[in-house]
Amino acid sequence: MEIKNAIHNEDGTINVEINHPKFGWIPFTSAHDDPSEIAQEVTRALFDAEISPKKPIDINDYRNPLLELISIKSQYYVESLISTYPDFEKLTFETQKSEARGWVLDNTTKTPNVDILALNRGVDREVILSKINTKADQFERISMAIAGQRQKFEDLIALATTVEELDAINISFTV
What we know:
Layout: E1 3-8, E2 14-20, E3 24-30, H1 37-48, H2 60-81, H3 87-90, H4 93-105, H5 112-121, H6 125-159, H7 163-167
Antiparallel strand pairs: 1-2, 2-3
Helix pairs in contact: 2-6, 4-6
């Protein structure tokens, strides 16, 4: 049997291409405990073949999923803070914040959207404007803390030179 491009795998198997009589050159993974006839033929052919060393570990195969994970976890953490609000209301947050911040700078500033909110909530507009500013400040500080932690993890991942160093990174977001 003709074989080529044999490479050891970390699990003890060997990836190889075999010249199959019916299909031509095809990939095959040889395992020492495979009792099939073709596996036995490949095993015999491997004794005479030059086998390259184990496929080198590409740290990026480990790094890239970790980078995705920190993005997903950080986004999930921040979204969990506002998960009880319906989507349509979340779309009003920037308008609320903009009017409330403008009002802090000049309390004669018109706040037509917050006025509607206050009227329908049955709460004084100045109370609502104060609450909006407080919540916006809190959300921004928490978001910055999570962004800083995400960036720290990104830096640690970029600096890691081994899979073991990547495994040692404990990705957890807290405030």
